[in-house]
Write a sequence for this structure.
């Protein structure tokens, strides 16, 4: 692959993210869930000002009723079975309607910690990149696996957003790090291998935060991340309209929002049809 | 194909529709648009009480960002290019999440008036029927073409809902009939060839009805339909929360609702993300 061309592609994509962060006062939204894979709703949120979009394979499983899954926990169990062709088509479709200035990062089978053997061959990186992806949304759980993905992604002009989880998380969505010191160390390791955007999973392990607040342990971990790296940072999981300001106040640059939108959309559809049939 | 088995399949499907009409006091909803092809939202509206669901190929074109289409007019231009395999997968996915008691009628390439040559081979009827369709949502524009579809549909255990349009409609979505007398005659012709549910396009031709009312010409035409046939009747096009009661008062049994839900869903997604990024 042509190295300088792909460097240029990555630079253009990186600028989209930086511009969005600046436009939205330091913290922007990565819109996912139904707005990540349904072209009608991706277009709708982009029209409303969203600059970053994330299709991913578990959400596509839910969108397609794949194997009858109706909740995220069930979708995580079978996400690796979503055909790669489907994710490439989703990427192409979303790109077709949102235009070239929107940043699209894609979650694909093999890109998460998949204990069912799932390869991610060069051809997939090439096709995703050609069909409209700017980046890959990666939830690998080891630095070595992550480095392999980062190198291939960069080769084909794709950036990588990757995540840190807690060792006790129910689902493994990133490199494990418990204490703020461990978060800081892992984040620096990720930066060193070239991860372009580093995130923390914020909704997986802790319950009992006050409405509108971040759990103190999550806050400490998130601040450790934000203070440890120079690349843009993300928070993913459990973020809604009530606690969003508290998250933004940590200085995190990108907040991943899926469920909060999915829930509102589901409720809107139900509210309309209930009015018709009562 | 086994005749009696398929008769039995049709009888079970027919009962789903009759039960829904009775349950909802004489007029029920056929939910389409995003609730017809996105399994998350099909499940949501079924949980809210909807019994009849309609995936169709132009809506799937919009869902997938197929060829970059972002509005229904553009989708109608390329709908025949949606691969049949996609519609079969959609049918299977929706059936997987809504369960066996929901009536699913499917719009597929070839089932509408498609002036681009589009065949509808027996194999498609068989596959749709096996993967979960109860019926086909048909917008053929001639009695002869419609009869061909009805015969094949019945052979494979599928019911048919088909429609009457106005000769001056922008898009051709049914058999043409202008005056109430013509509507009555065409409806009886459709009933005679075995159409199971007969609909009238109600939102294509007329502007200027008062909010909450039906345009008098549409009302006359709809009443002509309702009074002319014994099979359940449908109204499709331009029906929303404001004019729904007026439609139900004509005695029509099924009201097709798509845009009213799509608009509410789109607005809900936009409202949420705007609150995040302001």
């Amino acid at each position: 692959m042509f190295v300088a061309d792909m460097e240029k592609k990555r630079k253009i994509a990186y600028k989209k993210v930086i511009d969005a962060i600046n436009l939205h006062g330091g913290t922007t939204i990565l819109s996912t869930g139904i707005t990540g894979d349904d072209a009608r709703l991706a277009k709708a949120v982009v029209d409303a000002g969203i600059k970053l979009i994330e299709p991913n394979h578990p959400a596509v499983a839910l969108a397609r009723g794949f194997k009858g899954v109706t909740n995220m926990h069930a979708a995580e169990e079978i996400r690796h079975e979503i055909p790669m062709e489907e994710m490439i088509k989703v990427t192409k479709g979303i790109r077709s309607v949102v235009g070239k200035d929107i940043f699209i990062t894609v979650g694909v089978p093999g890109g998460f910690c998949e204990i069912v053997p799932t390869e991610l061959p060069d051809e997939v990186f090439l096709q995703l990149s050609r069909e409209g992806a700017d980046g890959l949304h990666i939830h690998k759980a080891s630095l070595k696996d992550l480095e392999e993905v980062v190198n291939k992604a960069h080769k084909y002009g794709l950036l990588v957003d990757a995540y840190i989880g807690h060792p006790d998380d129910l689902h493994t969505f990133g490199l494990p790090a418990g204490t703020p010191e461990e978060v800081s160390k892992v984040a620096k390791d990720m930066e060193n291998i070239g991860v372009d955007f580093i995130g923390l999973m914020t909704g997986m392990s802790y319950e009992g935060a006050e409405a509108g607040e971040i759990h103190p342990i999550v806050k400490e971990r998130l601040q450790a991340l934000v203070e440890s790296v120079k690349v843009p940072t993300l928070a993913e999981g459990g973020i809604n309209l009530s606690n969003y300001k508290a998250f933004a106040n940590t200085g995190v640059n990108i907040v991943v929002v899926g469920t909060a939108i999915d829930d509102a959309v589901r409720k809107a559809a139900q509210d309309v049809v209930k009015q018709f049939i009562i």
Q: What stands out?
A: Residues 3-23 of chain A form the longest helix (21 residues). Chain A has a mean pLDDT of 96.
